[in-house]
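#struct-queue
[09:14] JT: dropping the first one here, sequence first, then the structure tokens:
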Amino acid sequence: MSNTPSRAAEPVASEHIALKARNVSFSWENTPLHWVPGDPFATHTINVLHLLLPAGERWFVHVYKQVLPYIRDERLREDVIGFIGQEAMHAQAHDEVLPHLKDLGLDPTPYTAQVDWLFEKMLGDRTLPPGKARKWWLMERVAMIAAIEHYTAFLGNWVLNADELDRRGADPTMLDLLRWHGAEEVEHRSVAFDLFMHVDGSYRRRARTWATAFTALVFLWQRGARFFMENDPTLTGGKASFKDFYQGGKKGTLPTTQDMIRSIPRYLSRAYHPSQEGSTAQAVAYLSSSPAATAAEAATGPHPLPAPKGAR
């Protein structure tokens, strides 16, 4: 496998958009524990986002602040700063769901403590000497974020089109959180990949870190769903299985297994570029009607994006 930079397909110019953070807020007091009525498994499988994203997206921000000095393209620098602002808001919004779950009798702390350890310690800054070793670890994490963002964009595109959740009467506040977040993931779906290609671009690193990220995501997701099902105070002997996930995909309340599998060769293709997937127009259309996003815009305007340390 070559270690030379990949020759990615040309980005779709019409899919590029200036990024802004939206200072959203959500009120959770009327959201039930099983916010997909009658479907605790779909509810808790999607709820794993609240366990993973606060620590994960704070980690994204931390890594990207370190890589800013390596960016030589001004438009990409602006995109990365916009990405940082959006991800910081995502972390905050999902973090605010956790106390509500605890109030409903489902304490996520045992799981989130382990996730915090993963991102802060295992994937955090290591005591490495300045020079090649430190840069190598930074580029590994930049590549890992690009792989993870492939799946956050995949999920964002899925939830924007998951009409079955509406048909089943899913809680509108939770749907707005998920679709606001999903729309912003579609908006900025090219940034992580473009940054990786700009600062490194090694196909070997891209494939290796995809394998690491994909394996970790599958492990953490199934473990999180199992944690929720086993600790749900309203369930007796609650369990999570791959069969349940597969059936959720067939019903339309979860992504389909087939779509997830088909996403793998797309990312590993040397002709891959994220702008070829999803629709910026659809994402922007949702954000223009999202109750939380429009309320934030009316109240305060776009959330200010202070230049992170290292920005010129």
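[09:21] JT: and here's the second one, same format:
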Amino acid sequence: MSTARRVLVSVLPYPLACAAVAGAYRSFRDRLPHPMATHIGSGNKADGFDDPGAFLFVSLGVLLALGVVFAFLTWLTRSAPGPQQRGVAAAGGGVAVVLGWIVVGILRANAEVGADGDAATVSLPGWQAALGFAAAAVYGVLGWVLAGRDEVPAPATERASAGAARLPLGESESESWTRVVGGRAQLGVGAMMLATALFVGGVAGWPGGLICLAVGVPLVVLCRVRVGVDRRGITVTPAALPWPRLNVPLERIEEAGHRSVDALRDLGGWGYRAHPGISGIVLRSGDAISARLTTGSEFVVTVDDAATAAALLNTLADRERSKGVRG
């Protein structure tokens, strides 16, 4: 029942925003210039223009598409621990509020110029976008309350097994292991945020789209990572870039194994995740390296052939500890 309510919290603002946009277009239609201004650039000057009907079609299409996306994301996070689903629902509704506000503001600004006016003179004060984001924040708080309290999920109890395997290596032998893993969910959310940034930037100027851009770019860049195991421990970097780099050194690893990880149930989503007692890089559900750290917590990385990586980690960690004893 809570999931259905949260989907409603996330989705309801989208048809309402579409109704507001359609109503504004109907009211202002006879006063809109042809073409109308659809983008307000630097200096609060219009520098993008389109047919009013096309602008309406694109605006409604984007709103409806985002409504479907956030409905799916809210449903998808139904088994996530903590406030994950609640936050997605509140954020989804907030996006509808700010986009609907900005589109209606663009239509009103064009109507003030008039059908016979010069669309190049259309301007949209910065406070209009600020009010849109403020309204979105208000709905976000309201949506958070309406979404209801979270049930505390049972903690995951599966961990790397005792007596984990070792990879045989001679004293003078050195070995390394590496794999590339990608996540479709993270790529999809990142692409959605970039599309939202382009839309907001196109109708209200780039300052309004920077927030979505700042979220979307890292998600897309980090949707594929390279996982390496060698004498430095576990190292995770973006597949196409040398930075940012996350490293868990051998001296911090007590023992490693592999287990199945559910991204939503165990860690509440994708990407870098951290919860009491467990953290890691999770780009998909499935097999994962599971390292028990000297602090007692667990570090996981979802990747193919995790068993081989874990066995090599155990061998290298044993070797590192033996060096410490001899020293």
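[09:30] RK: nice, looked through the second one.
[09:31] RK: Residues 115 and 197 are 29 Å apart (CA to CA).
[09:31] JT: good to know. The mean pLDDT is 82.
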